[in-house]
Amino acid sequence: MRRVALTANGVRRELEVEPRELLVYVLRDRLGLTGTTVGCDTSSCGSCTVLVNGESVKSCTMLGVQADGMEITTIEGLARNGDLHPVQQAFHEHHALQCGYCTPGMVMAAVSLIESGEATDEAAIREGLEGNLCRCTGYHNIVRAVASAAGVAS
Amino acid sequence: MTAVESAPGFIGTSVKRKEDASLLRGKGTFVDNLTLPGMVYMAVVRSPYPRARINGIDLAAARAADGVVAAFSGADLADEWVGGMPCAWPVTEDIKMPPHYPLASGEARYQGDGVAVVLAESRALAKDAAELVEVDYEPLPSIADISKALEVGAPLVHEDLGTNECYVWKLESSDDVQAAIEAADVVVTRRYVQPRLIPNAIEPRGVLAQAGPAGEVTLWSATQVPHILRFTMQLVLGIPESKTRVIAPDVGGGFGSKLDVYAEEYLAAALAKRLGRPVKWTEERAENYVATIHGRDVVHELTFAATKDGTITAVKSEALCAMGAYLQLVTPGIPLLGAWIYSGPYEIPNYSVTFTGVFTHTTPTDAYRGAGRPEATYVLERTMDALARELGMDPLDLRRKNFIKEFPHTMASGLTIDSGDYGATLDRALELLDLDAIRADQAARRSSGDVKQIGVGFSTYNEMCGLAPSRILGAIRYAVGGWDASTVRFQPLGSVQVVIGTSPHGQSHETTFAQIIADQLGVDVDAVEVIHGDTASSQLGMDTYGSRSLAVGGIALWNAGEKVIAKARRIVAHQLEVSDDDLELEGGTFSVKGSPDRSMTIQAAAFSAHSAHNLPDGMEPGLEATAVYDPPNFSWPGGAHAAVVEVDTETGDTRLLRYVAVDDVGNAVNPQIIDGQVHGGVAQGIAAALFEEGAYDDEGNLLTTTMATYLVPSAAELPSYETDRTTTVADNPLGVKGVGETGTIAAAPAVINAVVDALSHLGVTDMPLPATPERVWKAIEEVRS
Lengths: 154, 785
Description:
The complex is a heterodimer. Chain A is globular and about 50 Å long. Chain A has five helices and five strands, in the order ββαβββαααα. Chain A is an alpha+beta fold. Helix content of chain A is about 30%, strand content about 15%. Chain A starts with a strand and ends with a helix. Chain B is an alpha+beta fold. Chain B has 18 helices and 28 strands. In chain B, the strands form seven sheets. A seven-stranded mixed sheet of chain B has the order 3-5-1-12-9-10-11, sandwiched between helices. The longest helix of chain B has 28 residues, at about 550-575. Chain B is globular, with a radius of gyration of 27 Å. At the A-B interface, α1, α2, α3, α4 and α5 of A face α1 and α16 of B.
């Protein structure tokens, strides 16, 4: 076991993790942050996307021990005082989620895409979300939601 | 009748989803999010061989491993089962139904067949120990191709059956179908291979089982079918339905793959009882590819007969349909769900359909979005284009000439379509499309010899969903009924609880069903709470599949609402000392006709119903009602879809430029949610056309074992969709039709017809599924050489 100190959604946490433990399981099983979901075992689906020091990362591609000293933001950390983050709100307005399983990862990827200034038009949004799979929506409303939150036409 | 007696007007508006509040905040209750004290984790050891004799299983090392609680082989658990895992649809009297137990013993029959389980204190320890299970496998000859599995000498999936043929099922309008074909001016016969599709709900399956001291069992399962699961638990484990509670919490997509009851659900329940500890199993994606059902894998030969003027006189379909190695819940019946619509929206007087079910050493097939209807619609709509080419007719003229034009219409296949206007949906699609401009662009590219050619393809479809009239299901040997149920309950202080028997996994029932009841009762949509997915609160239900929730469950809801209104009306009439008929309900208030000042709200009636101080003599207190609705007919949506593709003739790369979908799904309860269903359905149809194929080698080794090798498309591969609706009102109180599968049914033939159209000037007349760049490139090279 290794001692790791990280900040999850603004709260400093110290915990013992196995060296082989993926960050996503540290978040889910150790910290109870089950909003971040697991959809595959090949880093293909993006359901487990979180922000690590502000950048989107598939949390199945990172070991928990690598998160030592880092700031993690998960879907649970986006809303402020009960108010949805603008990307969450846009997903709601545009019906950009159905079953909701891929949604946390999709929202976190979209937040990162917008904050990095890369969500410049529909094509850029589609390319930018390429690493996040959704089986319900056909992406149409996700793209519109992200465009709306980014303030670009779609 | 109109749907709305009172009029806050939620029906027909895009009320934002109630479901989103928790899901958007990461507060979903998906099974893998749930933990119970003392829980152990289960891992399943699976056969790596498509077929192997199991000569022995050594569990000693696994049992001795760190954190391991127990480990069992199939033989160890044989006494747990009072019956095999049931198949609910023995489609013929002489169908071959091989026994199927939660773990294989003796012989593994497909890659992924479970042979042992390990239970440990953590997910990782269970998986570690599963690696230590030593199975003495003796690989045996195996077969994966349905076209070869019926040949003499082919390896047999079930030796004692003596054949790989599961059943032969026929539907014929008369004995004269062959005569009609022989008498025709033009006959077109085409062969189509529809490969396996792997459903890929983004949430893999999962189950958590807890057993109580009195023999009661609670199962949380990522399932579409909590009621069916409860039912089958008695058949396999002998646990009475009265002692079983099944909870489908938030479920992360299903698309038919969770319309099933699987080995792991029985194993978790049996082992929770045996160990006295809760047992959890979460499927990994790699497991999902072999251990969750697949869809399609059908080879058709379709024949159309027509007169020279384009009147289609006969359709004859013969298909080989993969069952996989075993029959899952409704495996043999999947082709039958398309059996009545090989004539689609066209009036075709002679009709013949034959399905041959075939066992192979592969993962069992079962329902995948559309289930039988995409298979039928694909071969039908592709052949419509082929026939048009043969006749030298415009494919749209051929379609219009043969459209059914009067409703209700009884088809040669025997079922009756209640409503539709196929010409109107096609007209609207063409308005959106601007076909002349596309044809002009196509002509310009052709004459300039542009590397990138474009094509447009159509699919004018109908489908039968809303499963289903129980008597018809009985007549076609489905084991249970097709009704559904709903309870509408006023709480004393005026909020409304709706308990439904359908079980959503993305379809937005909490919102849509609240809209309906809010309008009907005249209360705010936020005053309505929809409860689902728990057999303790919803004893009566037949769950969600086959686009049935609204078309069947929604009508049960409406009927329950009518019962509640009738009782409230009696209470109000009693208290205002008028007769029931003197009252009208508007906006949630009963008032005396002609004396609107004499009134009482429905909430006040609800309070009176519970205080019971002043009720009519003999009336029971409380204000709730349950209705069970058995539909008299299937639901018959239809529409016109058009795809515009651009094909790079040097690389074969094919891209969707546009996708237009105009559907008739009856009255719209929530247009935004309907559009969402169409988008997602179309995406899966496009994926089947261009990207997805579950491929096996000849022996039955799955070649597409991950999301890295099986291309579930991302936003970058898919287009925006242009959707609209035309409306014919269905023959039910809400006038609604099913919508969940329409897009998947319609899309694949539209896309492939477009690819063929793009290349038709080069001489390309056919295109295999999926139309990957390599296949498209080869098709072009073949006609060029």
